[in-house]
Amino acid sequence: MLQDLRDAFRALRRRPAFALIAIATLGLGIGATTSVFSVAQGALLRPLPLRAPERLVLVWETHRDRKQARNVVNPANYLAWRERSRSFEALAAFTPFVANVTGLGDPVRLDVGYVTPSFFDTLGVAPASGRALQEADAQEGAAGAVVLGHALWQRYFGGDPGVLGRVLTVNGRPTTIVGVMRPDFRVPPRAEAWLPYRPDPAARGRFLAVAARLRDGVTLAEARAEMDTIAAGLAAEVPERDAGWGVDVKPLHADLVRDVKPAVLVLGGAVLLVLLIACGNVANLLLASALAREREMAIRQSLGASRLRLFRQVAAESLLLGLAGAATGVLVSTWMTKALLTVVPPELLALFPIGLDGRVLAFAAGMGVISALVFGPVAALHAARPAPVASLREGSRGSGWRPERRRVSRLLAGAEVALSVLLLVGASLLLRSFARLAEVDPGFAAAGVQTFEVSLPRASYPEEARRARFFLEAEARLARVAGIEAVGAMSWRPLGLGSSTSFTLPDRPAPAQGAEPVADVRIVTPGALPALGVRLLRGRGFTTEDDATRPTVILVNEGMARAYWPGQDAIGKRVHMEWGSPRQAEVVGVVSDVHLVALETAPRATLYWAQAQLPNDFMTFLARTRLEQPALLAAARREIAALDPSLPLARPARLEEVVSETLDRRRFLSLLAASFGVAAALLAALGLYGVLAYSVRQRVPEMGVRLALGALPTQVMRLVMRDALLIVAGGALAGLAAAAFSARLLESLLFQLSSRDPLAFAGAAALVVAVGALAAALPARRASRVDPAVALRAE
User: Fold this and answer.
1) H or E segment at 102?
2) Is residue 691 within 8 Å of residue 410, measured between CB atoms?
3) What is the pairing mode between strands 108-115 and 88-102?
4) How far is it, in rounded angstroms, from Cα 697 to Cα 672?
5) How many CA atoms lie within 13 A of 221 on its CB side?
6) Which among 142, 150, 157 has a CA at the least distance from the CA of 103?
7) Among the listed ranges 159-168, 217-226, 380-389, 667-676, which one has the minimum average pLDDT value?
8) Are 491 and 620 in contact (CB under 8 A)?
9) What is the SS3 assignment for 685-709?
């Protein structure tokens, strides 16, 4: 075998152009495949760095009438699950939130996880130093305790091991640092620190995530069955809270990567198609090379070389090409992987480190060997076929293009065309879907709007009146800043997280328990909707007079008015909802629909409540301004500090960037799929060109005879073009048939577009046919310009 490899290396060195083209082609295919594998093995295949992660699950509530596969959990239900369930050895509740922290220099706001003390034990993780949270930390009146994330510890304390025992002020309360977590742990995904949480059984609403560890011997199906029974019991016991609600249990890892998996699988399928096309190209190159070397192989066989020896010789060349392509692919994947990370949400990268490692390198080497096994046998089998007499006779006059070998080459080219059509149909579907999504009107004017968040700690602002007064005063101060045209505050920034709740209409028959309609809820100051550019359609907006001393009023969106009061005026109607306590309000205005959650999600019924009448702890300021972001933030910090110097400004962002970021993953996925599709079409065109060019070269005598007997050059061109278009048409039809079957796999990624969209199919086929015709044009032109005298003299 070593001798075969040495001979193969010398043979490839004698044909550098052939070797470079084959290695570059394979390098592109293997590099793309390796980069997708590095993302897949990091995010989908690598186990979480927790004890027995396969037994960790997330437990969600579900509703029979609402299109939600998962919903956060009511605290009382979590406590009931913990008492009644026997399928889990431990349960823990947590919720992502924010905290204002002083003692780290300037006041900062951190993303934190409020967790029950059982959280770390349930997940099976221990701090790198210090201790985890304990039951005593969550008791009423207990001293504050916090566990720092590793990144936070490094950023603010420089990795100081003496940080344990230091006291920070968290949300206005002295809090002692009791531990520092490992660098590979961040659950919830954005959490920078963890604070103790004690569930209140009297709390209304649903806002907790629940993690659990299955007992040994308990299956996921058994846990689901038990939780269904518990949920049915709670619905019967507390129908006003749990009627219509159920439970679902999902593996933790699968739940974390639920949004990443479809994109990675689609890209994985795309790059495998590109790799197959690359293998087809190299197979045709090797086949052409084997045909050109038929005389050499015939002489070897005549001198006693066995078929196995000849087969091994060409197979060794294939193996060298595959390994060299793998090495090139590793280099290609180093920069392609960085681009692919766009499909992975940034908050998950801390949980799933992605990059080159031993597994990725082994995968690249394996793909090189597998690729050699895909394209190598075609040429190797032809090289080992026993036809020395015919080959020597044909070699004497330069023709080794026998019909069966021509058919193999044409089939390979047709297969490449089919695969490229399949890939281009998928890319076209994704691009057309993205174009439709990008055209969606968000319902607000994002240009010129900048945002930042302010959160009020309950310890410093225990009274609702103080919280309401703070945000009204902050809005008034910011409105006086030169360069700010309009400003207001909203409980959640558009196109992100939000709040929703069920509601009823007092003038309508009460729906069955658990069947109440649901509306998005936003708490706003008077200037918020005007600053956002939301149009007032009827009635009036909020004013500073809408405070706690006046009757409670709300605004509703046009979609809600149309759905619940068709043919009527919504102004003056009343709405009831539970929000900490029962609340009822009168509709005083109707505003235009806004995509509050996501552009691909249709606007739901929306209730806007006045901040002064339903005070919220945290608000996002929306400023329509001519100021650049640094100038605006400097002015905002000055005005907020004048009211409370301990409050930080968090998550500054331009609203235009927020809208663009919501499209980033779809945009990147579409463009990457399109890039792979174009690359596939070009590779297929190169394969077709190679087949036709070699065919024309082998058929020069035939072309000379045709021209000598009176055939016109245009007729010779048509002959070659007809052969090419037959290959392209056959491949295109096969590709369209495969696409019609497989495009259904993309349905979850498409927005308002059928997976059988005729324009996508027609566009992909047209592009491949056009590229194939261009690839055939040059060989056809060469065939038409053959000199009959020269061709016949050579014959």
Assistant:
1) strand 88-102
2) yes
3) antiparallel
4) 37
5) 0
6) 157
7) 380-389
8) yes
9) HHHHHHHHHHHHHHCHHHHHHHHHC
Do the beta carbons of residue 504 and residue 582 sit within 8 Å? no
Q: Rounded to an integer, what is the distance from CA 794 to the centroid of its chain?
A: 60
Nearest to 108 by CA among 652, 621, 653, 646: 646
Helices in 556-627 by DSSP H: which ranges? 558-564
- Contact by Cβ (8 Å): 310, 296: no
Cα–Cα distances (Å) from 361 to 115, 289, 322, 323, 333, in that order, read 39, 30, 14, 12, 10
Structure tokens at 296: 């050499």
* DSSP one-letter code for 565: S
HEC readout, 86-98: CCEEEEEEEEEEE
Task: List, in order, residues 6 or more apart from 637 with CB less than 8 Å away.
Answer: 649
Radius of gyration (C-alpha) of the chain in whole angstroms: 34
Nearest alpha carbon to residue 388 among 329, 303, 451: 303
Structure tokens at 453: 């968040």
Q: Is the separation of the CB atoms in 491 and 622 below 8 Å?
A: no
Distance, in Å, from the CA atom of 122 to the CA atom of 141, rounded to the nearest integer, reads: 25
477 or 8: which leads in pLDDT:
477
State whether residue 507 is helix, strand or coil.
coil
Residue 624, SS3 per DSSP: strand
Distance CA 57, CA 665 (A): 27
The answer to which of 39-43, 363-367, 668-672 has the lowest mean pLDDT is 39-43
Count the neighbouring beta carbons within 10 Å of the beta carbon of residue 414: 25
Asked whether 603 and 593 are in contact (CB, 8 A), the reply is: yes
Residue 121 CB burial class (10 angstroms; 0-12, 13-18, ≥19):
middle
282: left (phi over 0), alpha (psi -120 to 50) or beta: alpha
Q: For the residues 229-242, what does the mean pLDDT come to?
A: 92
**641 has pLDDT over 90:** yes
- For residue range 270-283, what is the model confidence (pLDDT) as tens digits? 888 888 888 887 87
What single letter denotes the amino acid at residue 487? V
Give the DSSP per-residue string, 184-205. Answer: T--SSTT-SEEEE----TT--S
pLDDT at 687: 77
Q: Any bridge partners for residue 520, and if so which?
A: 500, 606
pLDDT at 398: 42
Token pair for 239: 């129908």
At 273-320, the pLDDT tens digits run 888 888 887 877 777 666 656 666 667 667 766 666 666 777 777 888
Which residues contact residue 639 at a Cβ distance below 8 angstroms, ignoring those fewer than 6 apart?
474, 477, 478, 481
Read off the pLDDT of residues 572-626 as tens digits, 9 standing for 90 and up.
999 998 887 888 999 999 999 999 988 988 899 999 999 999 999 899 999 999 9
- Cβ neighbours of 15 (radius 10 Å): 16
Host H or E run for residue 484: strand 484-490
pLDDT mean across residues, the chain: 85
| Neighbour-count burial of 506, counting CB atoms closer than 10 A to its CB (0-12 exposed, 13-18 middle, 19+ buried) | exposed
Beta pairing class for 173-180 and 129-130: antiparallel
Could you tell me if 557 and 590 are in contact, meaning their C-beta atoms sit under 8 angstroms apart?
yes
pLDDT over 90, % of the chain: 43
Query: How far apart are alpha carbons 614 and 612 in whole angstroms?
Result: 6
Beta carbons of 273 and 424 less than 8 angstroms apart? no
> In Å, how far from its chain's centre is CA 730?
35
Which residues, 6+ apart, have CB-to-CB distance to 10 below 8 Å? none
Yes or no: say if 749 and 697 are a contact pair by the CB < 8 Å rule: no
Q: Which helix (H) or strand (E) holds 500?
A: strand 499-504
